[in-house]
Amino acid sequence: MSPFGILLLFLGCLLTACGGLPVIEPAPDVAIPAAEEACRSVFPEGKWQFVHTIEALLPGGSEKQVMGVTVVDTSERTLACALLTVEGFVLFRAQADDAVQVERAVPPFDKKGFADGLLGDLRLMFLPPTDFEVRTGRLQGRGFPKTPATCRYIEKQGETTDVVPGDLWRIYRYSPQGALVRSVTAEAAGGRAGFPGRLTLQAPGLAGYTLTMTLVDAVRIDD
Fold first, then answer.
1. Is the pTM of this model over 0.70?
2. CATH number, domain containing residue 31
3. Is 122 among the domain residues?
């Protein structure tokens, strides 16, 4: 293969995360209810406010650190979030239900697509999938935990979300073509109110980025 061909192959792997949708080995019927309950436990229930420090590793290797406040209402499936400097200056504020409404955005947080991307990432981390067919079993392949408690949510739009519960729980998000587009890993250490102390979200590809969110506080909101 020519050097140009090798380069194209390499770029193609980056764009498709160098892999497809992993095979899931079905769980025995008797294990399915407990597995699905474990998967649901990954997500908060009710209305919560979370405060995180967020370290962002951006394309090109640049880094940013901000404070993040996220309000999640799982019954209404709504999100609200704000990004602030450590001094408390609001850099970005938005909320989302069926659509995203931006209330404040200062450069560079006013770039096209930023709000939809950020709220989409938060939705992946804090709200369970909807409009789905669920399959329960064990993911096959290197790097996946050897547990039967994996839930695969196949959504009507063609996207697939795999939820692997546990103290070190994981979420994998795939495009309709089977390319990995997001992964989330939770670390239990240092958590509060039963929530993980750290969440790491990775978006692969040429424009990929990593968000490391360390939990500062978690407060249930009673309406």
1. yes
2. 2.50.20
3. yes
